[in-house]
What does this fold into?
Amino acid sequence: MCFGINFPEVLLISCYELGHQPFSLASPLRFLRNDGMNASGIDLAVENINDYEEHIKSARLVLVSVRMHNALRLGVAASKRIRALNPQTHICFYGDYAGLNSDYLCKEQYADSTISGEFETTIVELARAVVDDSFQSNVPPLGVSTLHSVAKPVLQRTSFLVPARADLPNIDSYARFRDDKGQLHLAGSTETTRGCKYVCRHCPVTSIYHGKFFVVPEDIVIADIRNQVGQGVRHISFSDPDFLNGPGHAHRVVAAMHSEFPGITFDFTARIPHLLRYEHLLSDMKSAGCAFVISAMETLNDDVLEVLDKGHTKADIIQVIGIMKKAQIPWRPSLLPFTPWATLDDYLDLLNFVRNHDLVQNIDPVQFSLRLLIPPGSELLEHNANAKWLGDLDAANFTYKWSHPDIRMEQLWSQINRAVRKSQNEDIDHSKTFSVIEELAYAMASKTPPFTRIVSQKRPIPAGLTESWFC
Ligand code: SF4
It folds into this structure.
C-alpha cells in the first residue's frame, strides 16, 4: 500500500508469501528508508498492479520478492507489466528463487539483476548505485548477479532492523488463524532465524544457504510482533525454515512474547528430528500458546527419505505422532508424495497411515498432490545426473522435467491434482476430499479400498491457518 509516500524512486513488490503480510517487503523497506531512500511497497497477493501504474512509472528501481516457486511465476508476470509501463526502470528479483533462476530471469530480461541469501544490505547497495546512476551491469555491487556478472548468495550476517509494516496492506487482508473451535483471528508472522543448518537435497534453502543459518536478535523479533499485535493480530506464525535450528533462541523468544502478550497464540515449523530431540521444550511451548506445529513428513518410504537426506525415518514419524499427542499440540505434516522414487504402493501406504493415525483433518488436501520440484542448482542434480527419469531444464517453469518410471504415478498425479483443485474451488471438506483421493489411488492400483467411506467428522478440526501451506 503506497499511501504516505507517493511516486517512490524505489518500489518493492511482493507476489505471494503464504497468506502473510510480507516480511520480505517490510524488512528491506526499513533498510531503504533508514538509508534515506524514497521507497514503498505493494503486495500483489492482496493488491492490484493496475492501481499502481504511476508508482511503477516513477520508480528508478523495482525490487520483486520471490521467496518461493509460486511467487516467481507471479513475479515474471509482474515484470512484463512493469517493463511495459516503464522500460527504463531497473528490475531486480530477490529471494532464494531469484538466485536459483538468475540466469533465465536475466537472459529473458525479466530481471536486470538478482540477489539471493541475506538480501537487505545488498538491496541498499544496489538502490544507491541505481539511483545515483553509477550502476554497471559488468561490475555490480557485491552480491548482485546480472547477465554479465554472477554473484554467490549473500551469506554475511545482517544487522537486522525492525521491519517497516506500517504502510503495508492492513493485516485483515491476509489469512486468518482458525482456532480449534472454528473461530477466526487476525494472524501475523515473523522470522527468528534465516537459512537452515540442514541440507535436505530437494530443499531450495540448501542450494542457497548450504547449511548456514542466521539468528534474528530477540529484541527485533519482539518489536516486530509488538507492531503486529498493535494492528490487532492474535496469532503469530514463526516462518523460519526451521524454528528449532536455534532451540534456546526459539525458547527465549516464545517466553518473551508470552510474557508481554499472554493471549497470543503461535505456530512454527520444525523438522521431525528436532521434535524428537527437543521434546522437553514442547510443554513450555504449549503453555506459552503454541497452537500447532508443521513438519515436513514428505513420505513414509525410508529409502526415499534417505535420498532426500531428511534425517528421519518412518519409525521417527510414528514416535513424533505420540510426542505431539502427549504435548497436546496439533501436528500438521506437509507431504511430498510424488517423487521419481516413491511407488504407487507407497502412496497407498501413506493414505492408510494418515487414516489410521487420525491425521486426515491435520493435512491440507493439496499436500497429497505435491510433486517434487528440481530447480536449477538443486542438490538432487548432482546425485542423479544420469538418472533415466531426469529430463531437461524447463527454465520457463523454473524446474527440471522429470517423469516417473511408473506411468500410473503420472496419471494419478494428474487426477489428484484435479480433485484437489476442485475441492479448493468448491470448499469441500477435507474428509470428503481424502475419500476421493483414496478412491482415485486404489482405482489406479486396481485394488479395492479396504474400508468404508469416511464421512465428515463431528469432532473439532485442529487449529490452523485459512491458507493452505505449500510453496
Ligand atoms: S530442514 Fe527444512 S528448511 Fe532445512 S534443509 Fe531440510 S527441508 Fe530445508
